Amino acid sequence: GRSRARSSAWSLLKVRREEPPDEPDGVPPPIEEDAGEYSSAEMRALVQRLHLATKAKGHAQGLVHALRACAFLGMVRFLESHYMLFVTRREHVGLIGPHAVYRIDATVL
């Protein structure tokens, strides 16, 4: 997502969907934050490369746009899978110095 509101800098969060079978319970979620920052054009190119690579691996649709979110809150593990929690709607309620404060209006798991 965007690293700053109304900015053109984007960051990338990599999520491993399959966990190795030898991982014990209680391990942290399979997340890795990419160290770089990307422009909007670089991010579009990266998503296009991921889409083509996914199709090449046999997934007919490639990447599928699942939702539009304004924040990622974290992950929770139920039984065998990790679930991601996103904020899908927010409302600006004030400022603390130069920083915007938002109220969460809707989430998706």
From TrEMBL:
Keywords, in A-Z order: Hydrolase
One GO-annotated biological process of the protein: phosphatidylinositol dephosphorylation
Region annotated Disordered, chain positions: 1-34
NAD recorded as keyword: no
GO MF terms held by the record: phosphatidylinositol-3,5-bisphosphate 5-phosphatase activity
InterPro entries for this protein: Fig4-like
Protein name: SAC domain-containing protein
